Fold:
Amino acid sequence: MTSGRPRLLRVAALALLILSPLARAELSLENLMAEFSQVTSAHGRFTERKTLGLLEIPLLLEGTLSYRAPDYLRKAVTRPEPSQFEIAGDQLTVETADGQRSFSLDDHPMLRAFSESYRALLAGDREALDRHYQTALSGSLGHWTLRLRPRDAQVGARIREITLTGSDHHILSVETLETSGDTSLMTIVPDDG
Structure:
């Protein structure tokens, strides 16, 4: 004689899966942007591997990333040489051993488009993302891939594609393919899991 308990547990597990918002939500850019729009801040550690035609071996960078809604982003490199890149509003500040410099993103379309690949997604700002990129999204909310192709011809002459992967409202990797053949792959470990 078999117990009805295992069947009841399977039915309960299936019901929880069906009722789960992530299970019910179909993957769409709107759903992904809605996930990100709930984020007020994010922090993580990164490792970046840059393969450059000018170097015989890849350049490896390590550091931290910080985001605060709606438009603050900081990349602090700790290895091999300390440096910091901070975007607040329309201003980019770069700090290296040589000193500190500031730029207006309005004067540098390439910097603006590149920064918006992160900030627009993190803010859940679909309009800004669509303004700068053609998008292609695949996967599920639990494991998604977002491919970005620059709309601006000047930016497209330098950046072929940016591919972001993630889970829910976390960006886990960013791969940048330049038209020169140079590549960058950043892997991110969110501090909040």
